[in-house]
Amino acid sequence: MRISVSEAKGQLTDLVRRAxxxxxxxxxxxxxxxxxxxAVAAAPGLKGRRALMEKVRASAATKVLQGxxxxxxxxxxxxxxxxxx
Length: 85
Description:
Blueprint: E1 2-4, H1 5-8, H2 12-20, E2 25-29, E3 32-37, H3 46-61
Parallel strand pairs: 1-2
Antiparallel strand pairs: 2-3
């Protein structure tokens, strides 16, 4: 639904209800789209956050590349005597 800002002033409660119900509500000014009313998604609960973190961890584990250990990562900068090379 597209509606001008001036018309929306008197219908705000109805427009908010429509947006909460999932309808797309777009406010226009001089025929140009300027604002989209959308419902705010509910914050996930503890179980939802935990599931999201597990998903992120699993995804990150598949992207890990094997390489030198971090403790040895700058060895190429020094010679056998520990002096800058």
